[in-house]
Amino acid sequence: MTFSTPEAAESAFYAAFEARDLDAMMAVWASDDSVACIHPMAAPLNGRAAVAAGWRSMFEAAGQFRVQVELAHEVREAGQVIRIVREHLFIGQETEPRPPILATNVYRKEADGWRMVLHHASPLQVGGTPPTRTPTVVLH
Question: How far apart are CA 15 and CA 4, in angstroms?
Fold first, then answer.
Protein backbone atom coordinates (compact mmCIF):
# COMPACT_ATOMS: atom_id res chain seq x y z
CA MET A 1 0.00 0.00 0.00
CA THR A 2 1.34 3.43 -0.94
CA PHE A 3 0.34 6.64 0.84
CA SER A 4 1.05 9.71 -1.28
CA THR A 5 0.45 12.16 1.59
CA PRO A 6 0.62 12.09 5.38
CA GLU A 7 -3.14 12.72 5.37
CA ALA A 8 -3.68 9.53 3.30
CA ALA A 9 -1.58 7.56 5.78
CA GLU A 10 -3.52 9.05 8.68
CA SER A 11 -6.86 8.25 7.05
CA ALA A 12 -5.74 4.64 6.54
CA PHE A 13 -4.50 4.49 10.15
CA TYR A 14 -7.88 5.50 11.57
CA ALA A 15 -9.78 3.27 9.11
CA ALA A 16 -7.67 0.29 10.26
CA PHE A 17 -8.20 1.37 13.89
CA GLU A 18 -12.01 1.38 13.49
CA ALA A 19 -12.01 -1.88 11.51
CA ARG A 20 -9.65 -3.51 14.03
CA ASP A 21 -7.64 -4.74 11.04
CA LEU A 22 -4.07 -5.53 12.12
CA ASP A 23 -2.75 -6.05 8.58
CA ALA A 24 -4.14 -2.71 7.41
CA MET A 25 -2.85 -1.05 10.58
CA MET A 26 0.69 -2.33 10.14
CA ALA A 27 0.67 -1.34 6.44
CA VAL A 28 0.58 2.29 7.63
CA TRP A 29 3.67 1.95 9.84
CA ALA A 30 7.27 2.33 8.66
CA SER A 31 8.94 -1.00 7.97
CA ASP A 32 11.95 -0.52 10.25
CA ASP A 33 12.25 -0.77 14.02
CA SER A 34 12.43 3.00 14.58
CA VAL A 35 8.65 3.06 15.18
CA ALA A 36 7.02 3.62 18.57
CA CYS A 37 3.48 3.66 19.90
CA ILE A 38 2.13 4.78 23.26
CA HIS A 39 -1.49 3.94 24.01
CA PRO A 40 -3.24 5.99 26.71
CA MET A 41 -1.89 5.24 30.19
CA ALA A 42 0.35 2.43 28.86
CA ALA A 43 4.05 1.78 28.51
CA PRO A 44 5.78 2.65 25.22
CA LEU A 45 5.90 0.01 22.51
CA ASN A 46 9.19 0.23 20.59
CA GLY A 47 9.80 -1.52 17.26
CA ARG A 48 7.43 -3.11 14.76
CA ALA A 49 6.93 -6.38 16.65
CA ALA A 50 5.96 -4.60 19.88
CA VAL A 51 3.71 -2.12 18.04
CA ALA A 52 1.95 -4.97 16.20
CA ALA A 53 1.52 -6.93 19.45
CA GLY A 54 0.04 -3.86 21.14
CA TRP A 55 -2.50 -3.29 18.39
CA ARG A 56 -3.35 -7.01 18.24
CA SER A 57 -4.06 -6.99 21.97
CA MET A 58 -6.15 -3.83 21.72
CA PHE A 59 -8.16 -5.13 18.75
CA GLU A 60 -8.87 -8.45 20.50
CA ALA A 61 -10.14 -6.65 23.61
CA ALA A 62 -12.08 -3.86 21.88
CA GLY A 63 -15.73 -3.92 20.99
CA GLN A 64 -17.33 -1.93 18.20
CA PHE A 65 -16.36 1.74 18.11
CA ARG A 66 -15.80 4.63 15.76
CA VAL A 67 -13.47 7.58 15.99
CA GLN A 68 -13.71 11.13 14.73
CA VAL A 69 -10.43 12.98 14.32
CA GLU A 70 -9.95 16.72 14.62
CA LEU A 71 -6.65 18.35 13.67
CA ALA A 72 -5.32 20.56 16.49
CA HIS A 73 -1.83 21.41 15.20
CA GLU A 74 0.56 20.45 12.43
CA VAL A 75 4.28 20.86 11.76
CA ARG A 76 5.48 20.19 8.20
CA GLU A 77 9.06 19.62 7.13
CA ALA A 78 10.46 18.22 3.91
CA GLY A 79 10.50 14.57 4.97
CA GLN A 80 8.45 14.55 8.16
CA VAL A 81 5.05 15.72 9.33
CA ILE A 82 3.83 15.93 12.92
CA ARG A 83 0.06 16.04 13.39
CA ILE A 84 -1.53 16.63 16.79
CA VAL A 85 -5.15 15.52 16.75
CA ARG A 86 -8.08 15.15 19.09
CA GLU A 87 -9.60 11.68 18.87
CA HIS A 88 -13.29 11.48 19.74
CA LEU A 89 -14.27 7.84 20.39
CA PHE A 90 -17.82 6.54 20.24
CA ILE A 91 -18.17 3.10 21.86
CA GLY A 92 -20.85 0.69 20.64
CA GLN A 93 -24.07 2.56 19.86
CA GLU A 94 -23.22 5.65 21.93
CA THR A 95 -24.31 8.91 20.34
CA GLU A 96 -21.98 11.08 22.43
CA PRO A 97 -18.21 10.65 22.34
CA ARG A 98 -16.08 9.70 25.31
CA PRO A 99 -13.74 12.38 26.70
CA PRO A 100 -11.28 13.26 23.94
CA ILE A 101 -7.86 11.76 23.56
CA LEU A 102 -5.00 13.93 22.38
CA ALA A 103 -2.70 12.11 19.96
CA THR A 104 0.57 12.97 18.28
CA ASN A 105 1.04 11.22 14.95
CA VAL A 106 4.41 11.48 13.21
CA TYR A 107 4.81 10.53 9.55
CA ARG A 108 8.04 10.13 7.59
CA LYS A 109 8.48 10.24 3.83
CA GLU A 110 9.99 6.98 2.62
CA ALA A 111 10.80 5.59 -0.83
CA ASP A 112 7.32 4.02 -1.05
CA GLY A 113 5.36 6.98 0.36
CA TRP A 114 4.43 8.35 3.76
CA ARG A 115 4.55 6.04 6.79
CA MET A 116 3.74 6.45 10.46
CA VAL A 117 6.69 6.32 12.85
CA LEU A 118 5.00 7.43 16.09
CA HIS A 119 1.51 7.41 17.59
CA HIS A 120 1.31 8.75 21.14
CA ALA A 121 -2.16 9.05 22.66
CA SER A 122 -3.04 10.58 26.04
CA PRO A 123 -6.34 11.36 27.72
CA LEU A 124 -7.25 15.02 27.53
CA GLN A 125 -8.61 16.49 30.72
CA VAL A 126 -12.41 16.75 30.48
CA GLY A 127 -13.29 20.27 29.46
CA GLY A 128 -9.63 21.01 28.88
CA THR A 129 -7.96 22.06 25.70
CA PRO A 130 -4.27 22.13 25.02
CA PRO A 131 -2.74 25.59 25.35
CA THR A 132 -1.98 27.31 22.07
CA ARG A 133 1.14 28.86 23.57
CA THR A 134 3.16 28.25 26.68
CA PRO A 135 2.71 31.17 29.10
CA THR A 136 5.71 33.44 29.45
CA VAL A 137 7.70 32.73 32.61
CA VAL A 138 8.73 35.76 34.63
CA LEU A 139 12.07 35.12 36.29
CA HIS A 140 12.27 38.26 38.48
Answer: 16
